[in-house]
Design goal:
It is a single chain. This protein is mainly beta. The protein is 8% helix and 33% strand. The protein has two domains: 246 residues, Sandwich (Jelly Rolls), CATH 2.60.120; 34 residues, no CATH class. The chain starts with 9 loop residues before the first helix and ends with a helix.
Length: 300
Amino acid sequence: MLRSFKFVGALALAATAACSSDSTAPSAKSADLTLAGGATASSTNNVVVTESDVARQIEDTPPTRSWVFYTRVASPATGAFVTGPSTPPLGSGSFEMNTPLGTDKGTLFNYDHVGTRLADINSIGYSTYRDPASTAPDVQLPSVNIEVDFNGPAVAGGFTSLVFEPVYNPDQGAIQSGVWQTWNGVPGIWWSTRPINGCAVSPCYQSWSAIVGANPDATILGGFGVNQGSGSGGLIAATDALKLGVNGDRWTYNFEPFRTPLTKDDCKDGGWQNVRAADGSSFRNQGQCIKYVNETLHQD
């Protein structure tokens, strides 16, 4: 399944803004967005995401690209594409956030899945690495957040954020430091930042199937991604392999500090200058890049 949404500038989005007290709320009920550069999302390949794909913005501002890293005003929270830590589940890198204060917050959101029905989602997952240097409570890890219109696009209102946290899913294993762990949101226990059908007073801790069953018209309204903060002071943690499956199709987002060439074509026409070897070293010329592809990926 391929989805493409027409990109709208920040000013146009702001003009139709719907006020919300939730952080990084979408600025329009029916956000009409596209991937940066007009590309379409791939449902079959791993999608490498690097710093060059991401806009950095203050929370509660309209997204200006398909990927946005949001932080709060004057917050020391940071987010960076790094090598490691340890051996990430995909590639050589991950996206690491550091929230020194309890009031800090960082959110890495993707906007390519606006309009997707929650009832069509059959898998959500991600992997985390909690740095042993963290001083936050042992149960703290980045969460998966999804901005949702729980009553569907045909009815006014209905904004909320659905949140998956490993701490509320103990059947998936104890949270550990210094190791990569993989978490599955479907099936899984979630909570809503606002009252929704089936939850009169939030937060309610409900299974994904229960939320979808009580809100059959719910759709993704804004961002889908990872969040760290608002109570996670002292947490240093990395995420990788963020996954979303819809009607059997799957997007897997691989966070990397740089891109590596996957085919010889990636090296041609100056492309060798924009990619690196897996160890982070640069190529001297096109020939060296093509040799790397031939030797590491066994392409003739």
